[in-house]
Structures are given as C-alpha cells and as structure tokens.
Amino acid sequence: MHDETNRWNVTTDRSLDEFLAGDDSDEADETDETPDSDDGAETELADTDEEEPVTDEEESLSDEETPAIERDTATEPVDPETVAPAVGTYRFDPDGVDCPRCGETVDRLWLDDDEQVCKDCKDW
C-alpha cells in the first residue's frame, strides 16, 4: 500500500534512490552504461578537458560588477568553547519506548520543545 500523500514522510525510513528524479529508476538502471561495457561507447568524462563557450550573459559581467566575497572569517580560528554542541533531533529504540506525552510505545522519538515525543505528538 503506497499513500502518495505520505511519500516523503520524515518518520518513514527511505532509500536514497527514492529521492532521485523520475519514477523510472529501475528502467534507467538497466540502460546505464557501465565502465566494463565492450561496445566502445565513449563516456562524457572524455569531454571534460574542453572549455564550454562563454555566453553573452557571462561576458557582460566584469570583475568590477561581481561582489567580493569576504574571506576574513574563514581564516579566523573558532574557539570550541563558544560553539553550541550539536543536538540530536531523533531517537530510535528497537525495543520501544513510551512517549512522555501520550504514553504510546513507539520505536522512534522526535525532539519537540526539548522533549522527545512520538510522531503524533510532535508539532511538525
């Protein structure tokens, strides 16, 4: 059963393949060229040494019109004491754990207002 409205539901585990463009990923896998193929087809990597032609839009930009990028902050060291530690937003417990708000036993909890709760109690 596939519910299209919940296709990208954050609480459901997904394969990275599902995020690729198009629904014909199985058909595309069958027709992809492999490096071991014997048909002598050249790959796009052979064309990477050639420069692409410059468009009129790119020619109209000069160095004076392009905003400068500030790089001073990238060279300054950051004091580790001033950086806030990373906070986990998700917890998985294969044995199940009770949601502190509703009491339902679930295997996944999500951070909501400094409390880990089930997907139904989380304010998405």
From TrEMBL:
Pfam families: DUF7573 (PF24458). This is DUF7573 domain-containing protein. InterPro entries: DUF7573 (IPR055995). Residues 1-98 are annotated as: Disordered. It comes from the Archaea. Residues 20-67 have a biased composition (Acidic residues). Residues 86-124 form the DUF7573 domain.
